[in-house]
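Hey,
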Amino acid sequence: MICKIKKIIDENERVKTFVIDKKFNFKPGQFAMLWIPGVDEKPFSFLSEDSFTIAKVGPFTEKLFSLKEGDIIGVRGPYGSYFKPYGDKILAVAGGIGAVPIMSFVEFYKDLDITVILGARTKKELLFLDRFEKYANLVVCTDDGSYGYKGFTTDKMEDILKNEKFDLVITCGPEVMMKKVFEISLKYNIPIQASLERYMKCGIGICGHCCIDEFTVCKEGPVFSGEQLKLMKEFGKFKRTNSGKKIYF
C-alpha cells in the first residue's frame, strides 16, 4: 500500500517514529517491508497499527530520516509470526530498539500483569518510558548507570526471578542479550518467546536469505518459541551479511 507520512516524532538522536495515514491489522511482533521509491525495501516491526519506530543504522534509514511529513512510502505486510500470551503474568525483556515490538505487546495486552525490564546503553537511548509505565511494572537498566539500575537487563532478570514467578518470558533486543535471556528462562523453567532479526530481502520466505539453521526468520519468525530456539545452533553465535556470508556476533 502506498502511504503518506502523517507525522514524524523524534524519540532521540538516532530514533524516530513515523506515523502513516493508513492502518494495518497486525499482531505484536509482526513486521512490514517499508519501501522508499527508487531506493530499497527493508523490514521493520510495527509499533502500532499506523506507526513504526526506527533507528538510523545504514543507507536506507538515512534516506528514510531525510523524508518529511507528506512524503510517500510503500508498506507491505504485516508478515511473520507474533507474540502469543501464555498465562496472566509475563516478564518482558527489551534492549535498545528491541523495545518496539515489546511496547506494542504491552499496549495490546494491557489487561495482563506485565513486568518490563527495559535496557539501553544510556538514559538518552531509552524508549517509551512513559508509555511502559502506564501499562506495565517497569524496571529500567542502563549500561552507564545514568538511569535506573546500572548493569545488564539479564542481571536484573535473575534478581527478579529469585523472588517472583512468571508464566512467560518475551524478549527482543541484541541477540547476545536474548541468548542469555533464553538460558535464564531455561534455568527457571519458564516458557520463552524471542523476536529475532536477520538480513531480509523478500520478507515472504522465498529468497532464503534470512535463514537461521533450518528456520526462515521472515516466515517462521521473527518470533520463535523456546522449543524452536533449542534447535538453533546459530542463535546467539552467527549472523549473515547482505552477501550471505556467516559472521560471528
